[in-house]
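Example is below:
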Amino acid sequence: MRIDANTKILIVGLGLIGGSYAWALSEKGYEVGGIDINQESVEYALQKGWITHGRTTDDGEYIGQFDLIISALYPHTFIEWIKKHQQYIKKNALLTDTTGVKRCFIYDLQALLRDDLEFIGAHPMAGREKSGIEFADKDIFKSANYIVTPTEKNTEAAIETCSQIGHILGFRCVTTLSPEKHDEMIGFLSQLTHCIAVSLMTCRESDSFSEYTGDSFRDLTRIAKINEVMWTELFLLNKDDLVAQMECFETQFKKLKEYIMNGNAEEMREMMRNSTKQREKFDIKKDD
């Protein structure tokens, strides 16, 4: 399928990301429906005009209306939702997701689906330090990356449609990775950084630190304000890749520690020059 003006889109899970998707898609003129167990979230989305209609209960007739279903649920919750509701999903509908890990569930989910349905993974690399639909923002996608994660079971049409979603939402960059490569990269680029921020914020405690800190500490620990339920699940689901990236970080941190202990000034400078060079690559891509 290809998304057009007649495509009916269902968002399952109206939190921060689901709400942001609904807002961005409805503003583009698409008919968007929403499902969430929280009545207040559905009512909030309706009041804002981000969805045309919504439900909190299991309504098979309602689910069967949609051509495209986007899950903004946790991985295990989405699998349970599919087991319970796929009997109602429209024939030849396309399903995708927004979750931050892939390999641990994507193959099981594809094997679970009816033959006339197709699921393709996607990861919007966008978010905030707060959760809930009241913090949704259609503009969080503008400077962010969107990763499509196809498997051998996916058709070219599904890959193109999933990529189209990223462009419609306004992501800066839309790319494709295998589920395995995705989880390796996310272990380093996202999960490791959250581990560092959490560790930094918990290695020392003082009520007065906020009176002395500068921007560097605030910037480095911004993501330490964390959704502990979601990130615990993501860490554990991707633990092999994440632990490997943590060990890589530990190696470099230990090297820098030894340079400082031994007074190896030139080695430190070389490490810092390399750090600056690598960081500049991100600045260039952001400006493009």
Notes: The beta strands are 8-12, 31-35, 53-55, 68-71, 94-97, 118-125, 145-149, 173-176. The radius of gyration is 21 Å. The mean pLDDT is 93. The chain is about 50% helix and 15% strand.
